[in-house]
Amino acid sequence: MQDFLITTSNIDILIFYIIHVNLQNALFDVVMPIISNMSYFTFWILICIFIFIFDSKNRNIALLCVIALVAGYFITDILKYLVARPRPYEVMEGIRILDPINGYSWPSGHTVASFISVTILGKGYGYIFLVLVASLVAFSRVYNGVHYPSDVISGAIIGILIGLLFLTYENHIIGKINNFRKYSKYRK
Q: Which of 57, 61, 126, 184 is the most buried (most CB within 10 A)?
């Protein structure tokens, strides 16, 4: 088992170096930090607020996505502190940090947020474009030197699982919100 873990860790580091070092170029050095900075939980929540205001057909999906994103934020923070994996630039030499960030590496919160959003918003808007955006976010986190490939892969899996969990209970969650709204109207 220990040999498997060492091999897996070596593959993780090898892929990190391929993306972070071998793919370096001036265009990516400008674009990847922008992609990363636009893709955190707050970005997706703003997208959901925009949908809620301007697309009445997908209001419930937007609301469900916001709730899932808030839950995902806390789940990600708890996992980060439980695992406490240092970021690549903290333990490896020669890493360029294009998007400085504090905290632990595993899982990638940007990737979790992106894949929660893909899973839920894709129900109303289709998955192809959203999956491409979320995958680009995951790639940017490795390219920027702040995450290992395993951080973003597991972040994607965690995000998808959280999204699916909330979609599974969508009717129940939206029903509770609607009941709260009705109750609030009668109290006034």
A: 61
> Alpha-carbon distance 99 to 24, whole Å?
14
Q: Which CATH number fits domain 2-176: 3.30.200, 1.20.144, 3.30.2420, 3.90.980?
A: 1.20.144
pLDDT in tens, 79-131: 999 999 999 999 998 899 888 888 999 999 999 999 999 999 999 999 999 99
pTM tops 0.70, yes or no = yes
